[in-house]
TrEMBL record:
Main localisation: membrane
Coiled-coil regions listed in the entry: none
UniProt topology in membrane: Lipid-anchor
Tree of life domain: Bacteria
Keyword Membrane: yes
Official protein name in the record: Outer surface protein A
InterPro entries in the cross-refs: OM_lipoprot_Borrelia, OM_lipoprot_dom_sf
Compositional bias of kind Basic and acidic residues: 87-103
Gene3D superfamilies: 3.90.930.1, C1 set domains (antibody constant domain-like)
Cell compartment(s), UniProt: Cell outer membrane
A Pfam family matched in the record: Lipoprotein_1
Keyword presence, Acetylation: no
Organism, as annotated: Borreliella garinii
Length: 121
C-alpha cells in the first residue's frame, strides 16, 4: 500500500493494485475510527466510510486534486448530519456542528494564517 498525506494531518493508504471491479482500495484512520472505500484513481482521492461504536456513520471525502478533505459524522440513519470538518491544503478549515434536527448550530472557520471566526446559532 502507498501512503498519501492529506490536508488536516490525515493519511490515506491506497492499494497498489486494482480489485476485481477495477477500483483501488482506500483505508484511513480518523479519530481512531477505521474508514474504508474504493476509488477509480490511485492518488488517494475518493470516499471512505465507517461506523462508530454508537452506530453513527462517518464519511471522509477526499477531493480529486487532494487539496481538500471533508469528514462528516451522521446519525444512525446515515442522513442527519452531526458534524462536518473541511480541511484545505492551505491549512484553512471549517468545522460545523449540527443540532438533533440536523440544523447548523455552530461553525468555526480557521483561516490559513491561524485566525479563527466562530459563529453560534
Amino acid at each position: 500500500n502507498a501512503s498519501v498525506d492529506l490536508p488536516g494531518g490525515m493519511k490515506v493508504l491506497v492499494s497498489k493494485e486494482k480489485d476485481k471491479d477495477g477500483k483501488y482500495s482506500l483505508m484511513a484512520t480518523v479519530d481512531k475510527l477505521e474508514l474504508k472505500g474504493t476509488s477509480d484513481k490511485s492518488n488517494g482521492s475518493g470516499v471512505l466510510e465507517g461506523e462508530k461504536a454508537d452506530k453513527s456513520k462517518a464519511k471522509l471525502t477526499i477531493s480529486q486534486d487532494l487539496n481538500q478533505t471533508t469528514f462528516e459524522i451522521f446519525k444512525e440513519d446515515g442522513k442527519t448530519l452531526v458534524s462536518r470538518k473541511v480541511n484545505s491544503k492551505d491549512k484553512s478549515s471549517t468545522e460545523e456542528k449540527f443540532n438533533d434536527k440536523g440544523k447548523l448550530s455552530e461553525k468555526v472557520v480557521t483561516r490559513k494564517d491561524g485566525t479563527r471566526l466562530e459563529i453560534h446559532r
